[in-house]
Design a protein that fits this description.
alpha+beta; Arc Repressor Mutant, subunit A; three-stranded antiparallel beta sheet; elongated
């Protein structure tokens, strides 16, 4: 009896150099499919990481772990995990500094800053997301006798 190959599984660790720009050819080698949205990077396309990167984009000097936790409504463990993914993709840097001296140096202050590569990847991602929104809006442009679904009305 022949065994079938196992389906490919998504890796849990992020790639060292994520692809943020859409390829010019489809998987079949032809022209890129209109609605493939290859620029929607899976590392960025996750609700918590979108929140983290948006918060960091608005704070070029970076943010503390505590600030990010509150801004994104995440637990310590969730924030740590998402930061590890973003750090592995070289989108953020995480710096830990012990506060105080001697026995009082128990507290660690963690700060997070977006890297130049992270900023560019996020801006490219947002551009692709805007393309998705434009395509969806164009598909539901109101005619004289119809009303678009809520949230998709032209601005």
């Amino acid at each position: 009896m022949a065994t079938q190959p196992e389906p490919a599984r998504e890796q849990s660790s992020p790639p060292s150099r994520p692809q943020s720009t859409p390829p010019t050819r489809s998987a079949s080698g032809g022209a890129r499919a209109r609605h493939a949205y290859d620029g929607l990077d899976r590392i960025l396309h996750e609700k918590a990481r979108l929140g983290i990167l948006t918060a960091l984009l608005t704070r070029p000097e970076g943010a503390s772990f505590v600030e990010l936790k509150a801004l994104c409504s995440l637990t310590d463990g969730n924030l740590n995990r998402h930061l590890a993914v973003l750090q592995g993709a070289e989108f953020v840097t995480v710096n830990k500094v012990r506060e105080g001296s001697g026995a009082a140096a128990r507290r660690t202050r963690t700060s997070v800053q977006m890297t130049g590569n992270g900023r560019q990847a996020f801006l490219d991602y947002l551009e692709e997301l805007e393309r998705v929104v434009r395509d969806a809006r164009a598909a539901v442009r109101p005619s004289a006798d119809s009303t678009p679904p809520p949230g998709l009305a032209p601005a």
